[in-house]
Structure formats: C-alpha cells, structure tokens
Amino acid sequence: DALGSAFLQKARESGDIAYFDLAEQTLKRSLALAPQDFRAADPLVHMALVYMGEHRFSDALACAQKAMGTGSGNLAAFAIEGDAYTDMGDYDEAAAAYNTLQSLGQAILSPLQLAYMSDSRMAYLCYLRGDTAEAVRLMNGAITAALQTNVPRENLAWLYFELGERYFQTGD
Fold first, then answer.
1. What is the pTM of this model?
2. Residue 36 scores a pLDDT above 90
3. What is the DSSP string of 14-61?
4. How far apart are CA 148 and CA 127, in angstroms?
C-alpha cells in the first residue's frame, strides 16, 4: 500500500502517467494480500485516488464506497466519493458526501486537518454552483490549513493553482 501511494504521489508530482500504472498494479497486489476487512480501506482509498487521477470517476466512486463499507473510518473515502460525484455532475450527492465528511471529521480530525481535507472540495462545489466569493474564501482557508499541516508541496501547489483558476475564471 505504501509503495502504491508513493507511486501515486510521484504521478501527481511529475505528470508522468506511467506512475499511475505502477500505482494501480501495486495497489491491486496490496488489495489481493489484504484481509477483506477494515485493513483493506487504505489500499482502496489509494486505488480510488489513482482512478480519480486517471479520470475514471465511476471506478473511483466504487472503490471509495467499498472503503467506506469496511467500517475503518477512513474519511478520505468520503472526500473521494464527493470528488467523484462532483466530476460526474451529481452535485447534490457530492454535497451529501462532503457534509458527511465534515460531520464525521469534526469528531476525529483537528480543525486544520478537516479544513485542508474539505474546504478545497467545498470551494469547487461552491464555484460550480455560482458562489465565487465563497469558493475563494474556502480555498484560502484550505491553503492556510495546508501551510500549517505540512502537506506535500505538490498538494499545496495544486491548492494555489485552483485558487488562481477561481480568480482567472471570474476575470480577476
């Protein structure tokens, strides 16, 4: 699982799609070895992220929901479920997934971890629904949280890129 996750991060950092293939192969092996209980949640979440990176949204949704079904409490699965629904155009289902993420996250994550995990996602959904001011506010909150939680530099760069996109798309 850790190797698959590392390949996924390398794909994101380099843009080299060969790393997505390596991540998928490695994670499939991890899932074959993992017991079919809560211990399969992390490899399933990482596989869902690979599928999101490849724009295989239905596959990502299936993996995220399977991870949720393990009962592990891995909140990233709810985030990915919302992402997949967003990218498939089902904004109501996306909002429901993000609301679940926020409700559960308040109980087990620090406010900064929760802001990093949910604010950028909610920002995109707000933007898609026409609330640019709220989208920018939430994205700035996600960036502030990311800076304080030491996320990988690529993840932080993505947040800045997305903030720039919101400004650019509104003519600012």
1. 0.92
2. no
3. H--THHHHHHHHHHHHHHHHS-SSGGGHHHHHHHHHHHHHTT-HHHHH
4. 25
